[in-house]
Structure formats: C-alpha cells, structure tokens
Automatic annotation (TrEMBL):
This is 2,3-bisphosphoglycerate-dependent phosphoglycerate mutase. CDD domains: HP_PGM_like. The lineage of its organism: Bacteria, Bacillati, Bacillota, Bacilli, Bacillales. SUPFAM superfamilies: Phosphoglycerate mutase-like (SSF53254). Pfam families: His_Phos_1 (PF00300). Its EC number is 5.4.2.11. The keyword Isomerase applies. GO terms for molecular function: phosphoglycerate mutase activity. Transmembrane segments: none annotated. Keywords: Isomerase. It comes from the Bacteria.
Length: 147
C-alpha cells in the first residue's frame, strides 16, 4: 500500500496515534480541524451516554453548545469527499475520533449506530474505498491487535 497523505484531527491523541507511522514512512501529518471530535454539549452532562444515544436516533438533536449528529456527519463527510473527489492520491490515512467516525460510517451504512459505536475498539481501523464511484467501508482492525 503506497500511502500518499496522512490527515489528522488536531487533537493530541489523534496525532500521537499516527505519529510513529508518519515518521516510519517519512510523511508529514496534515492537520484538518474538520476531523476534530464532535462536541456533544458545552454543559457538563452526568448522563452524557444516554444523551449521546438519543443523538443517533435524532440526527438533528442539538444539545446546548454542542453539534448535532447531522452537522458532525456533514463535517467529516466533506473532509472525506474533498480527499476522494478532489485529490489525485490513491491512499490517504485519515485519523479522527470514534464518535465522528461512527457518524461517517453511518453515511455508508445506516444500520451503524450507537450500539456499533459502543463496540468499536480504541484504536480502530476502517478501510473506505471508492471503486466505480461507489463507497465501500470495511473494518480492518482485528481484536488481537488491541493494545
């Protein structure tokens, strides 16, 4: 696989996740704010998990100071579309966070929701291909890789 670009969320933990590979293949990490994790709310939510679950059922629900699922999904989808449709590179690594990644996956598989998000590992790896202008997404991470 000839990796030509690495694009990451600006969050430190995302950059740290890909740093070793970046150095190994001598490829600079590009930062894209659109890959930042979704902000559920600006308020402290003791029941944040329940609130998050509701946002998978109601993509337009926007908690105070937060971002709706629809807004977050559009943000990450725009990033992916920019890379796939406007870039002449074949292989790009995009590093982001679980919740917003799950919303991206939902764009291609509307059965991917809250329960699937909860089953994601950390880290996790998905391969998105675009053969013949049709998106295909597949989980690549194997449980025995968990650290």
């Amino acid at each position: 696989m000839n990796i030509q670009r690495i694009i990451s969320s600006p969050f430190v933990r995302a950059v740290q996740t890909i740093e070793r590979l970046s150095k190994k293949i001598e490829l600079e990490i590009e930062i894209d704010k659109r890959l930042s994790e979704r902000r559920l709310s600006s308020e402290d939510l003791p029941d944040w998990l329940e609130k998050l679950k509701v946002t998978y059922d109601d993509f337009d629900l926007k908690l105070p100071g937060g971002e709706s699922s629809r807004e977050a999904a559009a943000r990450i989808r725009q990033t992916v579309d920019d890379v796939l449709l406007n870039d002449n590179t074949d292989t790009v690594i995009i590093v982001t966070h679980g919740n917003i990644l799950s919303l991206l996956i939902n764009q291609f598989d509307n059965h991917f929701g809250f329960d699937q998000w909860r089953k994601m590992s950390n880290p996790d790896v998905y391969l998105l291909t675009y053969p013949n202008e049709n998106y295909h997404i597949e989980r690549m991470w194997k449980e025995e890789y968990n650290v």
